[in-house]
Amino acid sequence: MLRPYRLLAAVPHASSLMAFSLLGRLHMPALAMVLTFLVVDWTGSYAIGGVIGMMVTVGQAIAGPLRGRSADRSSAPKLLVVTGLGSGLGMVALVLVTRWADPAQWWLILPVALFTGLSHPPITQVGRAIWPRLTDGPAREAAFAVEATLQELLFVVAPMLATFVVAIWSPVVAMLACAAWAALGSIIFAASLLRAGLREAPKEGASGAGGAGSLFRVRGFTSLLLFYAALVGGLISIDLVLVGWARERGTPELAGLLAMVWAIGSLTGGLVSGGFAARPRLWLRVLLSALGMAALVPVLPPIADPGSPWLVGAILLIGGTAIAPTLAAGNGRIADLAPAERRSEAFGWLTSATTLGGAIASPLAGWMLDLSGPALAAAAAAGLAFVGFGFVAHHSARASRAPQAEEESATT
Fold it and tell me: For residue 38, is pLDDT > 70?
């Protein structure tokens, strides 16, 4: 079972590339939370904080494929340094505007927020695109499993660290820490790429056909993006369900504990699945993820009122074991579909798709919570995951028909 991990550990520079790729993203899961604290302290309005956060998100969604394409066509280390510094400067500018501008003129910060999002360093897409260049087979699948699993850990650790800094010092200090890490993390990851000899972009045509034209013309690419948007929308909705249920119970701290239990399940599943040498079956992993979300529906109010935290936690722990394996298998499938010289761009589109999924799911989950409570919102989250399963099943069906069509064409 440990053979794929041993193969991955034997790849030169694999450990440092994985570590610095993940450390370079440490500030990313905390940024939205810190920005909300910063803006609410400035204006007293959560609504304004949401608008400003949305502008950063829009910039990140636009930048994802653009920065990925640049990494595919030029020096990724140089791009990381430039965008990391730009992102850090944008966060510093956000702090300066909140210190100097009148809260009544909060709209002045919107272009700064957009610039910050547009400067988002492409650490995630570059960090994923390098693995097919370095290894293949079980070692590559193990790399994607480790990456997806440890990224789950980032989404637990980073907000906790951010909350600690805000509580001990202030939102300003927390935002400046994010700015410093955005620049420093990008520089460190760029240096690790240089040490690994990954200075230049892959040569065009390295993967055969498909390098020219739009990636959306590649068979199955659009289906996978839609799958990711639906699945991530469902995952974000479950986070909101936990927050809403915990607030209704008068125990808001319970949301953080349950989210941690869910993450522990995901971590466990990711590490176990990464040890399998067989090619992952994405459709099965998506189905298990969706079933894990659906299992929450009957144990939440108003179906089960008030609901048992122990039972909800047990379902999250078990259901969570499918999350990281699903994300890892999806990353591997994207890497298979995209031409070698365009993988960073493909993962950039993936970032935009997940951003869109979250943007659609958040208000939907909020509306469901207001309308009928946590059970209906959890059902909507599971519904999104099942929609993602439908896209994967459609992609698998088309992929299985393609070889048959080619064989029929060759015999006529």
Answer: yes
